[in-house]
Amino acid sequence: MGTRTPAREYKAFKPTTDWAREGGFDTFRIHLPGFTKDQLKVQISSTGYLRVTGERPVSGNTWIQFRLEIPISSNYDDNNVSARFENSFLLVQFPKIIVQAQPHREAKPAVQPIKPPEPTPPVEPAPAEKAPVPAKQTQEKPKKSTEDEAKYGPETALQKKKSEDLAQRKATEEDHKWGETANIGKRMDKAGTSDAGDIGKPRAEIYKENVGSYVTNPKKLRNLMNTMVAALLIVLLGLYVKHVLRSLGTPKSDPEL
């Protein structure tokens, strides 16, 4: 009788995988260290799956095995799928039916640094214009002189003004001559003191000025007359009242029978 071969013990193995994308096809890569080409099997099922299987001995009757299935995209041509094994990698290539154009990347404009705004130079204030120098105004003639010219005529008004200036000059000379006595007389005259004529102006001149002012001013004269009439009426009314009171106070004598 021959010896029986011991049964194999299988351990599951999960290889690492990734994709390499290129223009006309994509490559599915499976990393299978320690495997050989004869130990691998690549199939495409009728349901549209890629099936990759493999097994190899490790030690004695211990083996490792793996099984991969991935769906095939409709964008791939499954009739032209190819596979090769090199450098411990199983490379399965999937040709593309529709090659999608690579999107054209527009060149982005270079970002220019934003420059800080340049400082605005200070605006110098415009030189102030000099105010025009007003022309010298002609000296107006005194109002009194204008009125005198309209009333008496230019020549008569001039003579009148000269006379007033001469009188003013003489009065000033008298002030210097008599000193404080003349000044006291003037102050008493302005205050209305009755004795001013003894020191300053004569009484006759003061009386003439006061009476003359009533004669030349009708309104002042009329006010004076009204005042005198009112005073007279008050006096008469007082006498009448006194007479009535006296009459009421005297008892009448009875007539003789």
What's the short story on this structure?
By secondary structure, the protein is α+β, with helices and mostly antiparallel strands.
SSE map:
Layout (H helix, E strand, L loop, with lengths): L8 E4 L3 E6 L3 E7 L8 E5 L4 E11 L2 E10 L10 E5 L2 E7 L47 H10 L1 H25 L1 H12 L4 H4 L3 H14 L1 H32 L8
Parallel strand pairs: 1-6
Antiparallel strand pairs: 2-3, 3-8, 4-5, 5-6, 7-8
Task: Describe the structure in your own words.
With 257 residues, the chain is α+β, with helices and mostly antiparallel strands. Among the domains are: 9-95, Immunoglobulin-like (Sandwich), CATH 2.60.40; 144-232, no CATH class. The chain has helices at residues 143-152, 154-178, 180-191, 196-199, 203-216, 218-249, and strands at 9-12, 16-21, 25-31, 40-44, 49-59, 62-71, 82-86, 89-95. The chain has a four-stranded mixed beta sheet, with no helix packed on it. The protein is rod-shaped and about 195 Å long. The N and C termini lie far apart (219 Å). Residues 114-125 have a biased composition (Pro residues). The chain crosses the membrane at residues 224-241. Keywords: Cell membrane, Membrane, Plant defense, Transmembrane, Transmembrane helix. Residues 126-136 have a biased composition (Low complexity). It is found in: Cell membrane.
